[in-house]
Amino acid sequence: MEPAKMASPKSAPKDAQVMAQILKDMGITEYEPRVINQMLEFAYRYVTTILEDAKIYSSHAKKSSVDAEDVRLAIQCRTDQSFTSPPPRDFLLDIARQKNQTPLPLIKPYSGPRLPPDRYCLTAPNYRLKSLQKKVSSSAGRITVPRLSVGAVSSRPSTPTLGTPSAQTVAVSTKVGTPVSLTGQRFTVQIPSSQAAVKAATPTTPTVQNVLINPSLIGPKNILITTNMVSSQNPATEANPLKRKHDDDDDYDTL
Amino acid sequence: DRQTLVAVLQFLRRSNLRESEEILRREARLLGDDLGSSVATVASSSSGVAAVAAVPPGKGEVLLGIAGSLPGEGGRPLPAQFYKLLLYAHAFAVGGGVVVEDQPDVSAVLSAYNQQGDPALYEEYYSGLKHFIECSLDCHRAELSQLFYPLFVHMYLELVYNQHESEAKSFFERFHGDQECYYQDDLRVLSSLTKKEHMKGNETMLDFRTSKFVLRISRDSYQLLKRHLQEKQNNQIWNIVQEHLYIDIFDGMPRSKQQIDAMVGSLAGEAKREANKAKVFFGLLKEPEFDVPLDDEDEEGENEEGKPKKKKPKKDSVGSKSKKQDPNAPPQNRIPLPELKDSDKLDKVMNMKEAARRVRLGPECLPSICFYTFLNAYQGLTAVDITDDSSMIVGGFADSTVRVWSVTPKKLRSVKTAADLSLIDKESDDVLERIMDEKTASELKILYGHSGPVYGTSFSPDRNYLLSCSEDGTVRLWSLQTFTCLVGYKGHNYPVWDTQFSPYGYYFVSGGHDRVARLWATDHYQPLRIFAGHLADVTCTRFHPNSNYIATGSADRTIRLWDVLNGNCVRIFTGHKGPIHSLAFSPNGRFLATGATDGRVLLWDIGHGLMVGELKGHTDTIYALRFSRDGEILASGSMDNTVRLWDAVKAFEDLETDDFTTATGHINLPENSQDLLLGTYMTKSTPVIHLHFTRRNLLLAAGAYSSQ
């Protein structure tokens, strides 16, 4: 919008003329015409807020009418709330003195991108991957994802798939702590013993939560700790859409 | 004094502060004459001060209430001793460990005004002084006229603060026209302060009241003034002078009006001489010598010397000059600086190669200027920066976006997503190329994140990061490899007006509305240093080429130079008559050029702390200043749609730096702006807001087309 001169005094209402005069007194000569409207709106809103507050104070003090003291009090209270001003000079000098006393921290060499701790950065993912249902990924879509077990290890192939359990699953119960082979074969997936025998082959909702790992970056011998992987409780309910939704809720709850 | 005590007792009784009253009564009877200690002992008991402080409406106001109510009772002016007692009491309270909340308020109030005589007589006092000064000798008149402005403002503020509205108004009406023209903006602000409540929110005015206005006056003029003011009827003015003004006396010839006009104008008067006496290491850091890798890209026909040329360090012009330490350069490890990575070394090699092909500029060989006009910006372009190798340009806009363009034919590419990265072959030689995503390459990348207009942008020297600061109070760090925001640095809670990366990366400085500049490091979420001292917003912040000092320009019309190591202010430069909007250090680190809304470019010698030049010519605010790569030409861009080139070599040669000038701090500035002006280049209607010399000394300029 192009800045324009003041609105012609003849056609503008009295308020607008007063506002234009105020702007002129403060030395502002060039402004868009909508500035006057904005200023008037602000003035009206501010004054009504103050007067309403003043009415409340005066009725609280059981006075018959609003007087200057009420208005003064109303202004004071509102000022602390809405209009903050920068801290006073001695306060700034004080904190500056404190801050400037600590020596500059040494810089660690070769530390990669120098960023603050992750908590203070905006680099965390702000999304979660949805459950992969009916995902036609490269392998056969039967995926069992076991519940989290600490110390679990599973080696993944370089392709980003969670392989089928049916083929080479070695059902290991982590509670027993049976060591899992780390060799470069396909993979081993633990399944809690309760389900191991029965429904190993049943397609369960392959919920994958928080796949933070990039499978390609993990060599065959790497130890991978997968977290937050929820197993479907009842493999048989997979066909039931309601139950699936319940599982979804479960997924979110566990996180 | 007895009367004063009685008055205080009466007041305490009226306010129902029985305890304090008892204590005071007891003490006062105990120590008959020693008024000072009695009040002090009252103050040291926490109940005394706290009780006083606890009376509503506000803590600071009650103490003033003591001061103010006494005259109201008996019409007596408050003796200066009582005021001193209050100060003493306050000092005791502070020393005694009593936590008086709103302490800054209290101290501000206490150091402010007490009744200095009858308000109706203020006009008399002032006009009396005016008469005296106008009748004094010519040589003294210019110096003594410096008194008018601070005296006027302080007297007016005192009247307002003590709620003599009508007197204040008539005082203002009568005398505001006498002030110098360059104070008009301040006077306008002052005219809107008619009540005591108005003053509370205005931090700049509060700071003005509490800080001392500095005047530099020669000894002779000072004697004259002192003699006159110490006559009885002018005692009031003498009191004000003693309280609010700091008179820096120097021995020597009184200054002429011209000299004074060049140096005054700031909100706090001039700089005290000892403010500019600290040693400043303005030399440059030594470039590290390293083996320049021999590559066969030398297509300039030097191939035959390419291979056997093992003596590459000879080309390193900085390192070869002198092996001993430049006395004016800071030690290499004075402040910790990031180490040189391989990519930085490659960059330096490129820099040296380009430097070899650089055009030598001078009055006979002016640079060509390439102007980048931002179209369709609708007055929204608020900040521009260009990388050092001139490959990218960034614009910060009022709609809170930050837009990055590639200036070269090479498009902007971001790194591939994690999924795609898994598919590439990590062992290949060109893996750095393979990680870049060609599918989304474009000339323009838009960065969203701020919630207010973006007022400052800065590229990091290694071109990996971009900083932007905005009205929402945050400084954001963006990655130029993924074009996403990495960190938001929250510290200023008010608009941040400018930010800049250090020439070595890692550190950056920001300055904003809260009147401080902050030094940050990219890996600390809180600032490392806070530079507090300005009386008004910090509008411009720049690093010195050796990264050990930071220059800040402010709306209080001063430029301050701060030491990064300990946060001290080592230089104060006054002389501009408007807020400073552009700063530029010369490449050799010795000089500083500053531009402000008054259209003048001032040149400063950092080592001596003096003003060494004034370049007049622009008619509007100067938003861009830049020295050429070797410091021969100074380019300035302004809102008056022009770019001007000035001869920097000539401006800095033969400076008088004899003992007198360094002692007194002022030199005679020759009127040579016309001689130094090498060229004026006009754009049609595009204000110039950024200037940049490429490595080969081509001048790039940027601005947004404004159709008027």
UniProtKB/TrEMBL annotation, chain A:
Q: Does the keyword Aminoacyl-tRNA synthetase apply?
A: no
Of the GO CC terms on this record, one is: SAGA complex
Q: Name one Pfam family in it.
A: TFIID-31kDa
Q: Enumerate the subcellular locations listed in this protein's record, separating them with semicolons.
A: Nucleus
Among its keywords, does the record have Nucleus?
A: yes
Segments carrying the region annotation (Disordered) are 232-255
Which InterPro entries does this chain map to? Histone-fold, TFIID-31, TFIID_subunit_9
List keywords of the entry alphabetically: Nucleus, Transcription, Transcription regulation
This entry's Gene Ontology molecular function terms read:
protein heterodimerization activity; RNA polymerase II general transcription initiation factor activity; transcription coactivator activity
Q: Which family does it belong to?
A: Belongs to the TAF9 family.
Report the protein name in the record: TAF9 factor
Organism of origin: Galbula dea
Gene that encodes the chain: Taf9
TrEMBL record, chain B:
Q: Indicate where this protein is primarily found.
A: nucleus
Give yes or no: UniProt keyword Repeat. yes
Q: Can you list the GO cellular component terms from the UniProt entry?
A: transcription factor TFIID complex
Q: Which Gene Ontology terms cover its molecular function?
A: RNA polymerase II general transcription initiation factor activity
- Which regions are flagged for Acidic residues bias? 292-303
Matching InterPro entries, A to Z?
LisH (IPR006594), TFIID_NTD2 (IPR007582), TFIID_NTD2_sf (IPR037264), WD40/YVTN_repeat-like_dom_sf (IPR015943), WD40_PAC1 (IPR020472), WD40_repeat_CS (IPR019775), WD40_repeat_dom_sf (IPR036322), WD40_rpt (IPR001680)
Q: Name one GO biological process term.
A: transcription initiation at RNA polymerase II promoter
Region (Disordered), start-end ranges = 292-343
Top-rank lineage group of the source organism: Eukaryota
Q: Which residues form the TFIID subunit TAF5 NTD2 domain?
A: 117-245
Q: Where are the WD repeats?
A: 374-415, 447-482, 489-520, 531-572, 573-606, 615-647
- Where would you find this protein in the cell? Nucleus
**What PROSITE patterns does this protein map onto?**
LISH (PS50896), WD_REPEATS_1 (PS00678), WD_REPEATS_2 (PS50082), WD_REPEATS_REGION (PS50294)
Renumbered to this chain, the Basic and acidic residues biased-composition regions fall at 315-326
Identify the keywords attached in UniProt to this record, alphabetized. Answer: Nucleus, Repeat, Transcription, Transcription regulation, WD repeat
Subunit text = Homodimer. Component of the TFIID basal transcription factor complex, composed of TATA-box-binding protein TBP, and a number of TBP-associated factors (TAFs), including TAF1, TAF2, TAF3, TAF4, TAF5, TAF6, TAF7, TAF8, TAF9, TAF10, TAF11, TAF12 and TAF13. The TFIID complex structure can be divided into 3 modules TFIID-A, TFIID-B, and TFIID-C. TAF5 forms the TFIID-A module together with TAF3 and TBP, and in TFIID-B with TAF8. Component of the TFTC-HAT complex, at least composed of TAF5L, TAF6L, TADA3L, SUPT3H/SPT3, TAF2, TAF4, TAF5, GCN5L2/GCN5, TAF10 and TRRAP.
Give a short account of what the protein does: The TFIID basal transcription factor complex plays a major role in the initiation of RNA polymerase II (Pol II)-dependent transcription. TFIID recognizes and binds promoters with or without a TATA box via its subunit TBP, a TATA-box-binding protein, and promotes assembly of the pre-initiation complex (PIC). The TFIID complex consists of TBP and TBP-associated factors (TAFs), including TAF1, TAF2, TAF3, TAF4, TAF5, TAF6, TAF7, TAF8, TAF9, TAF10, TAF11, TAF12 and TAF13. The TFIID complex structure can be divided into 3 modules TFIID-A, TFIID-B, and TFIID-C.
Protein family per UniProt: Belongs to the WD repeat TAF5 family.
Q: What name is this protein filed under?
A: Transcription initiation factor TFIID subunit 5
**Species assigned in the record:** Galbula dea
Lineage, highest ranks first:
Eukaryota, Metazoa, Chordata, Craniata, Vertebrata
Q: Which gene encodes it?
A: Taf5
